[in-house]
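dumping this here so i dont lose it again. seq + smiles for zinc ion
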Amino acid sequence: MIVTPGRVQLGHSTLPGEDAILLLMKCSYSIDYEVALPPGHPFPMSKYPLLKAQLISEGIIAPADIVAPEPLDVATLELVHTPEYLNKLGHAGLSAKEIRRLGLPWSDALWRRSRYAAAGTLLAARSALQDGLAANLAGGTHHAFADHAEGFCVLNDVAIAVAKLRAEGAIAKAAIIDLDVHQGNGTAAIFEGEEDVFTFSMHGERNYPSVKMRSNLDVPLRDGAGDDEYLGKLEQHLPEVIERSQADIAFYLAGVDVAAGDRYGRLGLTEEGIRKRDRMVIEAVRRRGVPLAIVLAGGYAPTRARTAELHAHVFREAWRYERSEINSRSGAF
Ligand SMILES: [Zn+2]
C-alpha cells in the first residue's frame, strides 16, 4: 500500500495494460436508490446498479470504496425544503397535478429513495472534503425546488449538501457546476441572491424547463450543438466559475443527456466529447486543489445499459486524473 498525504491508494486492480494502482474514490450507493416503475416508464431507474457493477468490473472503484448513506432526517431537509412540502412528501402525499409535474408515480418507496439519494450526495461531499474527490452513484436532482417537485426530482440533493455543510461550518463557499442538458432551475432558485454559493448551468436554451431561473452564470446552447461548440463554451466559462466562486468545494452534475441520440437531450455530443467535458471539469477544479463531489444527474440513452456506460466516463476520467497526479507527485513521470 502506498500512502500519500490525505490519500490512500490500494495496490490492486485494474484496467488492461494500466499500472496496478487503484485510487480510493469513495462512492455513495444504496440498493434503495432503485425503485420499481411501471413498464415502459422513461426514467432509467436500473442505471444505478448497472453503473456500480460496471465501475467495479473495470477496477475504477473497489467494493471497499462503496459507502452506504443513511436517509436524511427532516431537520436536514428543512435547511432547503419548506415544512409544507416535506409534510406532503412524508405524510399528506402529492396531488395528481403535483405528480404529473414530477413525472414519476408517487410512492413511499420513492420518498425513501429520494432521502437515500440526497444522503448519498451529502456523504460524497464529506468524502470529497476528506479525500479530495468522491461521488454519489445517483443524485443531481436539480429540478427540485424548495417547495415542489418537478422533472423526476423530489429533493434537491446538492442544495441540501451545500446547506448542511455550511450550517455545520465545514465550508463557507460552494460552486455548483451543472452540465446536465437541462437548466438547474431548482438549484438556481434555491440559491438566488446567496453570494456564497455560485451556480453555473450550461444547458439547452430551448429545452426543458421552458421557464429558466437565474443562475450566477447561465450558458445557453442551441439545439444540435456538438463537441466543438460545447467544449469551446465550457473552456471559455469554467475559469470564471472557479475564479468567481472561490469555493471550498465544487459539485459536478455530470448529466449525460448531452449525448447525441438522448431521448430528451437535443444536443449532439459524441462519447469522446463527453469524456473531454468531464476531464475539463475535473482538471479545472482539482488543479486548484478544490475538493470535488461528482453526482450523476440525467441520462436517457436508448437503453439502460447505454446510459450507465455513458455515466461511467466521468469516473474513468476522475480515476485517470487522480492517478496521473499521484504519479507526477511521486516522480513516476
Ligand atoms: Zn437532464
